Amino acid sequence: MSRENESTERGTRERESETREIDNDFRQSVNALTLQLRERLARGDSVGVTSDSRDPDVQHLLDSVHHMLALLDQALHEQKYVDIDTGFANADYLEEQLDRHLKTAGPPILSLILLSIPNRTLVAETLDARETRQLKMALRQRLQRTLAPNEMIASLPDDTLAFVVPLDSEPKLRLRAQQIMNALDDPFSLGERQVWLSAVAAAARAREDGPDTSLSLIQAARAALGESRSKGTGSFVLFEDTMRAQRHGRLDMEQTIRSALRRGWLETYLQPLVDLQRGEVTGFEVLARINHPERGLISPSVFVPVAERTGLIRPMSDQMMRQSLPLLRDERLQERYGNDFSLSVNLSPTQLHDPSLADQILQILHWEKVPPHRLKIELTETAVMADPNVAIHLIHKLRKHGVAIALDDFGSGYSSLAYIRNLPLDQLKIDRSLVSGLDHDGEKRAILEMILTLCERLSLDVVAEGIETEPELGCLLGMGAHFGQGFLFSRPKPVEELLAHVPASGLLQPAATDEV
Q: Residue 409 and residue 100: Cα distance in Å, rounded?
């Protein structure tokens, strides 16, 4: 073999050896990258992998792996920290961020504003899937436009939205909350449909003497939000220390309500509705009482506000409806008060936002085999005016099936005679505040005469509530009032006491044996 051939062959072997070495290095690098990647994925860790190789192919592979990990990290972050329904941060992320800020040195200038949209569920029930997506996107865009660079929005599980803001003075928080609520003032255009969203807001501040964890700050803001919801659309409440004691009291009452629902402590009391011209009982208003085994009777003025804030008003009202409607078939009551007396049941403002409420009421009537015309639903004036569209939708559906509708507590809220012309009502109940002292108050007499005249023209029955004295009754009779109720005739009573003490007629005299 010539030297030239030997040199060529040696060169070929060297190149083959170098190629094998490069291949081995490449394989080792790829195997090392693969092992690191497997370990990270097994731990749910998206931290980047490393390699000492300077091979361009290895570096290209490394770049691809890092890109894949970045996408994985984003997906994992969204899965862990983003609320899929709203696109905002979720409660876990909110808690982590709040705890991080609260643990920093010095008092953090930080507050949490909660935004609630009371009619959101009802609006959603009227939309199709496409419109629902449009509304969610439009709402998200509007609220994001309100954010400053150092603020964030998170979505809590009950559809409440939380805004973390670097503010701690009440005027600034009130202004900021109003700015957020103002973002919902204009209607949302969903194709040919327009919808309006209502809002209430509340806030809690993170201070040295205030909440020191994310959960306590959120709980404080929720306590303030409960107060704000009770005040109606557009309200804002800032958490104060006095709310802590109130919150503990409400928590105790909440447990009492839950026990009452579970253990049968919820009792039905009836107060007669009287035909004032004939002195006869025509029906009864259903009133709830909690009969606690140790504390005795608990007034609705104590437990109803707590039931409304906690959502327990719905199961409570449902239980009261189921307990009271069978009374329309009670042979003892029918024998005493006739076969066609009615029952009036109160609905709270929070119940109006349940889109299935009308169907639930009609279903109970069907189960109990009770004619719908013998049931009367009472809605408060303030509840109707807080969201008239929602109220009118409920009223129309119930009246279509024969259920009568009464506007309760008229005169205690807006007291506008004009708007009742546009409400499909059967009865107007005048609040006790206009009846009390009627006999020596000329202004009240003038107002009542005007109400009675208008309602006669509108074919509305009028009930005067809270009649307590004979002079008040005399004035009402002189004005031609047809119906009334109050302590003068009977306090609310359980059925047994009602049958024992309240006759069907002859009620134009005071109830002599009524206990306080």
A: 49
For the chain, what percentages of helix, strand and coil (3-state, to nearest 5) are there?
55, 15, 30
Please say whether the dihedral angle defined by the alpha carbons of residues 368, 371, 376 and 377, taken in this order, is positive or negative: positive
Q: What is the pLDDT of residue 91?
A: 86
Separation between Cα atoms, residue 143 and residue 185, nearest integer Å = 12
The residues, ordered by sequence, that sit 6+ positions from 489 with a Cβ below 8 Å of its Cβ are 272, 274, 467, 502, 507, 511
Give every CB contact of residue 390 below 8 A, 6+ residues apart in sequence. Answer: 119, 122, 352, 353
219-231 pLDDT, tens per residue?
Answer: 889 888 988 887 8
**How far is the C-alpha of 167 from the C-alpha of 376, rounded, in Å?**
49
Q: Rounded distance, CA 386 to CA 413, Å?
A: 11
SS (H, E, C) 110-130: EEEEEEECCCHHHHHHCCCHH
101-142 tens-digit pLDDT: 887 756 668 899 999 998 887 777 778 888 888 888 999 999
> If you search the block for the tokens 């709040």, which residue do you land on?
98
Question: Rounded distance, CA 208 to CA 444, Å?
Answer: 52
Evaluate if residue 57 carries a pLDDT over 80. no
CB distance 184 to 120 below 8 Å: no
Global pTM value = 0.59
Q: Residue 507 corresponds to which tokens in the numbers above?
A: 């009620």
Structural contact between residues 239 and 224, judged by C-beta atoms closer than 8 angstroms: yes
Overall size of the chain counted in residues: 516
Given a contact cutoff of 8 angstroms between Cβ atoms, the answer to whether 112 and 101 are in contact is no
Task: Quickly list DSSP for 307-365.
Answer: HHHHTTHHHHHHHHHHHHGGGGG-HHHHHHH-TT-EEEEE--GGGGG-TTHHHHHHHHH
Alpha carbon distance 55, 19 (integer Å) = 13
Domains along the chain with CATH numbers = 3-81 (no CATH), 91-240 (3.30.70.270), 248-501 (3.20.20.450)
Residue burial 313-339, b: 16+ Cβ < 10 Å; e: rest: bbebbbbbbeebbebbeeeebeeebee
